[in-house]
Amino acid sequence: MKEKYPDFVRRLEEHDLMYIRVLGEDDDPSSPIGRGWKSTFLTDDKSIAEKRAAHLGMKLEWTEDGVKTIMGPIPAIKFDGSRNRKIWFNSMVAAYTGWKDLRNDPEKAVTFGNGEPLPSDVIHDCLRILEEECVAIPWKKGDVLLIDNWAVLHSRRSFTPPRRVLASLCK
């Protein structure tokens, strides 16, 4: 991305990213976001949800039937001291191309941290680049995979249920 779109990458480093999601009260299996605010914040009490959101650096704006969540500005590119290099550390493409449902417009789901829209052509080319760099891991029952999020991006492909994946985050 830096080679092909140096100005875009510079703007990401300068302004960071802002993520905006609108969550209903309850889970919505038809939505790629899926979870409502109650299961996202593990409560049905709005004041507790606000405290938990604030702890994550997130702002909430309550609506008639749910909540608008605003996360950021947060860095899109971070510095990895152990590797002494900058790393691509964001969900920009996933949000921009996938957070579409009755409440969410993916093109408004992520912006530069100053609120300016992201250039659609660059985001879609970034998706193409990510696809070209993708390595699919052929899973078998009982497999365990450890991923260093500072070294690689991770995602998941479409699948045919049933599937059960257990995940854990470690520092």
UniProtKB/TrEMBL annotation:
SUPFAM superfamilies: Clavaminate synthase-like (SSF51197). Residues 66-166 form the TauD/TfdA-like domain. It comes from the Eukaryota. Keywords: Oxidoreductase. Pfam families: TauD. InterPro entries: AlphaKG_dependent_hydroxylases, TauD-like_sf, TauD/TfdA-like. GO terms for molecular function: oxidoreductase activity. This is TauD/TfdA-like domain-containing protein. It comes from Punica granatum (Pomegranate).
